[in-house]
Amino acid sequence: MNCREFKQYLQPKEGDLPPEAEDHLDTCDVCRTLFEGEADLASGLDQLETSSSSDSSELDFGDLQDEIERDRGGLATLREAPLGLRAMGLALTALIVAVVLGTWFLRPDFSHYPAARFWGTLAGFVGVGILTSYVGLQPVYRSGPSRRTTVALLLLVLGYHLAVGLLPAAHTADPFYHMGIGADLLPVAAMCLTYGIVYALPACVVGWCIQQSDRPLLRRSVLLAAGLGTVGHLGLHLNCPIVRPAHRLIGHVLVPFAYTGLYAVSIYAFDRRDGSSRTPPE
User: How far is 239 from 196, CA to CA, in rounded Å?
Assistant: First the structure.
C-alpha cells in the first residue's frame, strides 16, 4: 500500500485498520503522524460533544447573535476598513477639531509664548497620540501587545504629559500669567479639565466606531484611550493661556490620565459583569 491509497483511512472510522494499512503505518512516518493527529482530533471532538451534552440540554446562542448583529450595518463597514484608513479617519477628526477650535480660540498669549517650545510640545502630542492610537486600532486577528509593552507605552505617553505639565512657566509677560492662582486655582483648573475632556469627545466617538470590536481587549483599549486623551491635552495647549505648572498639572495633564483610567475601569467592569475577562493571557 502506498500513501495515496492510505488516505482513505485518515478519516475517523469505526473498527481497526486492515493489516495492509497497519503495515504501511509501520514504514511511513508521514502517514503515521497524520493518522495520529486525526485520531487525537476525533477523540477531542467526542469529548467536547459529550461534555456539552451533559452540561446543558439547550445551547445558548446569545453571544453568537450578538456577534452577528455587530457584523451588520454601517459600523461594521467602518471597522472592516484597512488599518491605515481607520487611523487616518481618527487623525483627520482630531485635526479638524484642533484647527477649528485652535483657530477660533487660539491662546491670547501666543505672541509671548516661545515658538520652539510651543511647536515642539505640539509635535510631541501628535507623536504619542499617533503611536498609542495605531496600536489600539490594530486588527483583532493580530496578537495584542504584551503586558510589558503596554506598560512601557503607557509610561512613555503619560510620562510625556506629566513632563509637559512640570515644565516651568513659558513666560511671565502676559496678564494671564496671574490667573488661576490662590483660591481660583481649583475652579479654573476644573474648567480646563472639563474643556479638555469635551474637546477629545469627537475623536473618542470616532475611535469607538472604528475599533474592530464592541468588546475590545483591555490593553489595546487603554492605549487607545491614552491617545484620545492626548487630543484633549493638545487642545488645551492650543487654547489655554495659563502657563503656571500647578494649573497645567491639574487642569491639563489630568485629561489623558482621566481618559485612560476611566476607559480601563469601564472595560474591566464590563468584562467582570459579562462573566469572563477578555484580557489576553500572558
Answer: 10
The pTM score is 0.64
Structure confidence by residue, pLDDT tens digits, 227-249: 889 989 998 998 899 999 999 99
Collect all residues with Cβ–Cβ distance below 8 Å to 142 and sequence separation of at least 6: none
Cα–Cα dist 43/62, whole Å: 28
Q: How far is CA 231 from CA 49, 124, 263, in A?
A: 50, 11, 15
Q: Are 129 and 221 in contact (CB under 8 A)?
A: no
Q: Can you tell me the distance from the alpha carbon of 168 to that of 105, in angstroms, rounded to the nearest whole number? A: 23
10 Å CB burial of residue 193 (0-12, 13-18, 19+) is buried
pLDDT in tens, 175-231: 888 888 888 899 999 999 999 998 888 888 787 777 765 455 677 888 888 988 998
